[in-house]
Each structure stands twice: as structure tokens, then as C-alpha cells.
Specification:
The chain is α/β, with parallel strands linked by helices. It contains 16 helices and twelve strands. Among the domains are: 138 residues, no CATH class; 92 residues, DNA polymerase beta, N-terminal domain-like (DNA polymerase, domain 1), CATH 1.10.150.110. The strands form three sheets. A seven-stranded mixed sheet has the order 2-3-6-7-8-9-10. A three-stranded mixed sheet has the order 1-5-4, with no helix packed on it. The protein has a two-stranded parallel sheet with strand order 11-12. Strand 9, helix 7 and strand 10 form a beta-alpha-beta unit. 40% of the residues are buried.
């Protein structure tokens, strides 16, 4: 298929999230390209609003290039408080030619924002010099994306994506430079990639190549992405399409449910957690924590988000899950120090905050009495 580049001047580039992402910890995101040559069949970007008014079929044949990406990023970031930004896109051949992601890194380095990168392309290591500078000044976290190390699955669902061994080699180089790096094991493919053997193969490799964490997620289904994923599954195994349709409650004219059933997701999360524990790897990504009292707010919010995930894989009542999630948002977005509130008013001061009840206030008070929370190692400059 012929690849076309369409250059244009974007009006804006930065997305500001209402709440911090509780998996990747980013508050902002900015990317220089729309479309992707790798064209993975299961890519969630095929099924949403990502392409705008473009035809979905152009996802991997037309790459729109925001030629003013770096200039916009500098202008927009200058107005905002420092927080984690998910930035860049090292897809080939776009980034090889335009080098816009490298120019965006220069802006992040200049403005000293903490940086998150979620990437499938090993081209990222081309910019190790800038990544090391940003990491020394502030913080860099990298998530290397892969669905499996099974080459049969790769050939069926992502034949044009970079080789998995090249991705693991990139992980090793990043880890060797002291950069926090782990794997985004997603999407995990039901019935063909979610068994212990497939999952453990990835976890073992991440450990061997210097990775520090695993983030695992299931397969979503939406619109054209669902159709392409189902067809790719049928080419791999004639029975897989019907099994997935049943699992995602597919209906003619309506399509599939976006996510797999809750009990499946919970069991998958537990399975990954158990495997990670055997290799002494966390199944969550450590958060960037700024220095000072306000950093404690971020740490407490992180603990609340971690409790939220724990409750999800335990299939707790939804109201309990949402109670912790809302409490995490409250603490994360506070303008005042939770340490000061606790020191001057005690637990009653925490209970007075929005969406924080007695039980959660008590837990927060307990955490605030732990030295490793107040003076924990991940507080950085």
C-alpha cells in the first residue's frame, strides 16, 4: 500500500486531561502525527475519534504531519504548571524523515517538564541524549508497548510493527541509562495470548532486559477496529471470531461491547499480578513525585489509585471503587498541602475534603504517619 504524507499547520497540539491518568500518570499529551504506518489491526485508535473526518481505511496509508508541533508545544506548555506530559511518536518512516518528536523533546527539556513516552518503535533510542538530559533534570518514564512475544500472533495482528526483539533491545538500552522503563502488555488477546505461558514469557523478558514494571490491559472492541480485529482473529483461527463475538456480546447492527466482561478482566489482572510477583516486578507503573509537601499529595493520590485498581481486580462493588477513585482525584487536584491539613486539623480536616468519607480519611491518616510516605525515595527534583 502506498504511503502518503500530508503536512499541515495545526491550531493546537496539547491535550489537557480533566484528571491525571491513573495508569500512565500523565496530565498532558501531545503527538506530532495522525495515522500510523504500522497499522496494527487491534489498535484502539482505529475505532474512536482519532482520525476525525478521515476515512478509517486511511489510518495506515495517510500520515498527517503537524509541521509546527514543536512551536505549538512550547507556546502551550509555557502557560501550564509542570506535570507529566505524554509526548512524541517515533513511528517510521514519518519520524525518521521529519524528526518532530526529537524537536518536541527539546522543548520538554528546555521547559523541564516530566516526560512519559508510550512507544512501539525502537527508533526512540536515537534520542537517548535528550532523554538522559530530561531524566537528569526532572524525570522520564517509558512504556514499551507489545501485545505478546509470540511471532504467530504478531504476524496475524501487527505484521508491519517493529520486531519485538528490537523493542526489548531498546528497553535494555534505556534501562542501562538509568531511565525508568517497563512494558505496556496490551492488548492481551483473549484465548490466544492470555494464558500463563504467553504472559510469563513477556514478564520474564522484561525482567531479563532491565524493565522495572508491567502494565497489562485487555483488548477493546470499537467500530472498524472491532471488525478488523475479528477478521484477523478468524484468519488465525476460524473459531476465534465466534468466540470473541460471544465474549464481547456482539450483536448484528450494534457491534460489540467495548470491553471484555468484568470477571474476565479481573481474573486477567490477578493472573498478571501473580506472575509479576514471581519475578519481583510491580504490575503498576511508579509515579513521578515532585519534591516538597505537594509531592506528598501526589503520593497519597497514587496510593488511592492503586487501591482503586486492587478493588477492580477483586471485583468489589462499583460504589466502593468509585469512592476511592473520587478521593484520589480530590487529593491529586488539591491546591493545599494535605500534610499541613493533617498536622493542623487532624483527620477531621481530611474528612472535610470533597468525596472523602470516614474510612478513606482514616486510611489517609495512617499513610501520613508512615515515614516512607512523607520521605519516600521517589521524591525527586
Amino acid at each position: 500500500m502506498k504511503l502518503e504524507f500530508q503536512e499541515y499547520q495545526a491550531r493546537k497540539i496539547l491535550n489537557v486531561h480533566k484528571h491525571v491518568d491513573a495508569w500512565f500518570w500523565d496530565k498532558y499529551s501531545a503527538h506530532p502525527y495522525i495515522g500510523c504506518r504500522s497499522g496494527c489491526e487491534f489498535c484502539y485508535l482505529r475505532g474512536g475519534f482519532y482520525l476525525g473526518k478521515r476515512l478509517p481505511e486511511t489510518f495506515d496509508t495517510l500520515i498527517q504531519v503537524k509541521t509546527n508541533a514543536a512551536e505549538l508545544l512550547r507556546h502551550e506548555l509555557n502557560r501550564l504548571p509542570r506535570d507529566v506530559i505524554a509526548c512524541g511518536d517515533w513511528q517510521e518512516p514519518a519520524e525518521t524523515h521529519y524528526q518532530l518528536s526529537r524537536e518536541m523533546l527539546k522543548v520538554v527539556n528546555e521547559l523541564e517538564f516530566p516526560l512519559l513516552i508510550i512507544e512501539r518503535s525502537p527508533l526512540l533510542v536515537r534520542d537517548l541524549d535528550l532523554l538522559c538530559e530530561i531524566n537528569q533534570k526532572v524525570w522520564v518514564g517509558v512504556v514499551i508497548s507489545l501485545s505478546s512475544l509470540d511471532q504467530r500472533l504478531k504476524a496475524a495482528f501487527e505484521p508491519r510493527s517493529p520486531g519485538t526483539q528490537r523493542r526489548m533491545a531498546a528497553m535494555e538500552k534505556l534501562a542501562g541509562k538509568g531511565i525508568l522503563v517497563g512494558a505496556g502488555l496490551m492488548p492481551i488477546l483473549p484465548h490466544v495470548g492470555d494464558d500463563v505461558a504467553h504472559l510469563e514469557e513477556v514478564v520474564r523478558a522484561v525482567k531479563d532486559f532491565g524493565g522495572s514494571f508491567i502494565l497489562a490491559g485487555g483488548l477493546s472492541m470499537a467500530g472498524i477496529q472491532a471488525e478488523r480485529t475479528l477478521h484477523a482473529g478468524a484468519r488465525l483461527d476460524v473459531q476465534l471470531e465466534s468466540r470473541w463475538k460471544k465474549m464481547y456480546n456482539w450483536q448484528p447492527g450494534r457491534g460489540a461491547e467495548y470491553s471484555p466482561p468484568r470477571d474476565y478482566t479481573a481474573q486477567l489482572g490477578k493472573r498478571v499480578r501473580e506472575i509479576c510477583a514471581r519475578y519481583d516486578l510491580p504490575d503498576r507503573m511508579p509515579r513521578f513525585i515532585p519534591e516538597g509537601k505537594m509531592g506528598v499529595n501526589k503520593r497519597i493520590a497514587e496510593l488511592l489509585f492503586l487501591k482503586t485498581y486492587q478493588l477492580e481486580i477483586e471485583q468489589a462493588e462499583l460504589r466502593q471503587i468509585w469512592a476511592y477513585r473520587k478521593a484520589a482525584w480530590t487529593v491529586d487536584e488539591m491546591k493545599d498541602s494535605i500534610v499541613d491539613i493533617y498536622q493542623f486539623v487532624g483527620e477531621a480536616g481530611i474528612r472535610s475534603l470533597p468525596d472523602i468519607g470516614n474510612r478513606i480519611a482514616s486510611e489517609i491518616g495512617m499513610w501520613l504517619n508512615e515515614p516512607e510516605v512523607l520521605h519516600q525515595k521517589r521524591i525527586v527534583h
